[in-house]
Design a protein that fits this description.
6 helices; two-stranded antiparallel sheet; globular
Length: 195
């Protein structure tokens, strides 16, 4: 079980990794299909930015209006700046939050601890970094501690009635040969290269 401080370090690394991938993505077309069904790259980036903004406000103030989670329209010229602003806000808010502080997540109409909210963001950041990387033809694999955390979290989500929620598709079967591949498959991603 990771401490809040350990999770914070992993999350900050995932945000930094994603920043580099967003910078690369913004150099090309944003209408590319992504591993997220029905979302092109612009829509995926918009979702990621909106999540950063909403979680930053919730971690900072204990709650955030659901409208704050709505992502902006993303353009090649504005993608990097919008991402960087949202990542900085989330990084600063999570660094100030107390691990046991109550956080209301309007999207789920539920109250969780700051630790659980940060864990949700770490999962999101690592997996969406892979989504962006895959979309632009790059590879992405987080550090071993993040892989282990995502695998545990993905397994718990996949075991819930109804499977994984939100942007995560139905779980695919796992092989046990690689923890990162299994984590992605549990979240509905097929990490095999396209034929």
């Amino acid at each position: 079980m990771l401490t809040y401080s350990e999770m914070l370090t992993l999350h900050h690394t995932a945000l930094a990794d994603t920043t580099r991938l967003v910078e690369r993505a913004a150099q090309g077309p944003l209408d590319l299909p992504t591993p997220c069904d029905e979302w092109d790259l612009a829509a995926l980036l918009s979702h990621m930015i909106g999540q950063n903004r909403g979680f930053a406000a919730a971690l900072g103030d204990g709650d955030a209006d659901i409208a704050l989670y709505a992502g902006p329209e993303v353009t090649p010229d504005g993608a990097v700046g919008a991402w960087a602003e949202s990542a900085t806000a989330l990084r600063e808010a999570s660094a100030r939050a107390q691990p046991d502080a109550p956080v209301h997540l309007a999207e789920f109409d539920s109250q969780v601890s700051a630790t659980l909210a940060l864990g949700m963001q770490l999962l999101d950041a690592a997996v969406h970094a892979w989504d962006v990387a895959t979309t632009v033809g790059a590879t992405y694999r987080p550090d071993d501690a993040t892989v282990a955390f995502v695998l545990d979290s993905a397994g718990a989500l996949a075991a819930r009635p109804g499977g994984t929620p939100g942007v995560f598709a139905a779980p695919l079967s796992t092989t046990g040969s690689d923890p990162w591949t299994d984590a992605l498959r549990l979240l509905g991603r097929d990490p095999r290269p396209a034929a």
